[in-house]
């Protein structure tokens, strides 16, 4: 049989074709340091073509280039110009430490850096372009090019590194095909159901998992796109929603907690239709408040390795909204038992959530081991209801997610145990209304030693290694810490004990 029948590359060029041919007058709004930029898809496409020439002129067409930038139109232009020429745009997390930026830029082999002017990264000897008015003039002065290759769909388009709180960050490359299919899948009516009549504002950063692919998805369908720019605060977000009539806002639960608090404090309305939230479980209180304000919540689950959103819950039943929801098209799930056996979807069996699909990472950048063939292990512990809705209940990964950012419990434990008066320590995350999770430490003192909470926190500060928000909210002194049969700290049991202690306010 001829396998080339209907041979068509699902690539960024195909999305770009729609932008130029179908939605010329649709708008993109971008909040920048210089003010609000307002232009049409046509203006945007012309800038992309000129930027492509700029990349060629600078000898970086078809190469990997790094961006360290907020959600703006300049960043969006790179999202297209770089992959259209067969290069990979490596989005670097602006919150990375300089040494992490060095590491990821080197691992990726980037040939140039594009960054916002408030980014403090000076280590590199690579050509560096700062997003400012001069940059705009340089790009505008280029010829528009129409010379784009038809890039193979399996080639990389965008790269992103995991947060790397345990060990080094790991590189994930999203291919043209995965970006295309994921963006299309998000548009499905039972997924996010975004259409050309929507105005979408991705508050999730474009420097991590391409703002959950919302920029690609929105432009693919001709939605008006509002980019909230550098460090947007609740006040900025509400202002943009009102001024540009945003219908769909996308961000982590902490963003929406701040927005709801602001709206209540200032006694203003929130004329949004839909909030898409994920990255951590949103508190039901938040979903209820949004409902009172007339806003529907879509709860999404995903991870760097699944190109962000992979399951969505749009239930009208608030009590079921803590579930992470149903897999979107081209994404499959299963529940794995301890022996690698598949567990039933009965809403009771508990196992590791595993996944496969068109936008699930097969292997990390520079990983020499064999590619995973069957299932990708998410490290999340879940149940699956008979109807296919996922409920994440715990995490195998030794990490705590606070305000959408990772804290390494192992790093904290090792640091606490390096204190001379401490025998043993375990750090776990406990549920927190505002931050999702916060770290709490259980500590066993060395025999005959007297030590208090303040002393340990001061010791951690003196190490100069941890940001303030990493420090445990509470240190509880215990006689011993439960262990598993193999002698490892039994964090599952610790979390359970802690949960009941907290409920009974026993400490
Ligand atoms: P990251 O790769 O940094 O985006 O983190 C992915 C991890 O965040 C997942 O494996 C989960 O542990 C957690 N996560 C993401 N979305 C949710 C959600 N809706 N509910 C609970 N945990 C979530």
From TrEMBL:
EC number: 6.2.1.-
Enzyme class at the top of the EC tree: ligase
GO biological process: fatty acid metabolic process
Organism superkingdom: Archaea
Domain AMP-binding enzyme C-terminal: 412-488
Gene3D superfamilies given in the database record: 3.30.300.30, N-terminal domain of ligase-like (3.40.50.12780)
Keyword Lipid metabolism: yes
Listed Pfam families: AMP-binding, AMP-binding_C
UniProt keyword terms in alphabetical order: Fatty acid metabolism, Ligase, Lipid metabolism
CDD domains: ttLC_FACS_AlkK_like
Gene Ontology molecular function, alphabetical: ligase activity
Cleaved signal peptide residues: none
Residue ranges annotated for the AMP-dependent synthetase/ligase domain, each copy included: 23-365
Family from the record: Belongs to the ATP-dependent AMP-binding enzyme family.
PANTHER family listed in its UniProt record: ACYL-ACTIVATING ENZYME, BUTANOATE--COA LIGASE AAE1-RELATED
Protein name: Medium-chain-fatty-acid--CoA ligase (AlkK-3)
Organism classification: Archaea, Thermoproteota, Thermoprotei, Sulfolobales, Sulfolobaceae
Gene assigned in the entry: alkK-3
